[in-house]
Design a protein that fits this description.
The chain is an alpha+beta fold. Helices cover 58% and strands 12% of the residues. The protein is built from six helices and six strands, in the order βαββααααβββα. It has a four-stranded mixed beta sheet with strand order 1-4-5-6. A two-stranded antiparallel sheet has the order 2-3. α2 crosses α3. The chain is elongated.
């Protein structure tokens, strides 16, 4: 298998504050004042490519987690899988996997299922819901937002969620994202096993 290359834009931000504009700079032989606006090097471009790749992983991992949530919902309402069933297949394909049944609604149904069972405790139910909320936000941000390479701050994810938002994609951010996916996947698995 080969890596594909698709057309994509790169947004690079060079910014100066009012103080930086008002402050001196380097006076060149031609009399013009030059000011540093930061630097973009090969490492910065690599970080941008890594962020793009990680964003794709976020989309794929969210899709996998969503399938787990779908199995929990189907098992809860239809019972465990016992063999081919037209009724079950119709419910899965036309209701659960429908675009009319978005991730946010699946998250709500999962909350109701976890509240009505004793499979996961109160703290774990809260962790699952808060984690799913973060994952939904991150998925939407990577799917609909824009990655920008800032000469001073690094790679920034810009997106809209109740207003314009920006998130610096630091190692701490990626660590939180990984931990959140791991916790949600473990708790969803526990809930799925408990609803079979």
């Amino acid at each position: 298998m080969r890596n594909i290359k698709l057309p994509a834009t790169k947004t690079i931000i060079f910014s100066l504050s009012k103080d930086e504009i008002d402050s001196g700079g380097i006076i060149m032989p031609d009399g013009l004042i030059h000011k540093s606006m930061g630097a973009i090097d090969a490492k910065s471009h690599e970080e941008l490519e890594t962020a793009r790749s990680n964003g794709g992983a976020v989309l794929w991992a969210t899709s996998c987690l969503e399938q787990s949530l779908e199995r929990i919902i189907v098992n809860y309402f239809m019972g465990p899988f016992e063999g081919p069933s037209h009724k079950r297949q119709l419910f899965e394909n036309e209701v659960i996997k429908s675009s009319s049944f978005p991730f946010s609604f699946k998250k709500l149904i999962i909350q109701n299922i976890s509240d009505s069972t004793s499979v996961i405790g109160g703290k774990d139910r809260s962790k699952l819901q808060s984690g799913l909320k973060k994952i939904m936000l991150w998925r939407n941000a990577f799917a609909h937002g824009q990655l920008k390479l800032d000469s001073k701050q690094g790679v920034i994810l810009c997106y809209y969620s109740s207003g314009h938002q920006q998130k610096i994609l630091s190692d701490a951010f990626w660590s939180e994202l990984e931990a959140t996916f791991e916790v949600c996947s473990e708790l969803a698995k526990k809930l799925e096993d408990g609803t079979n």
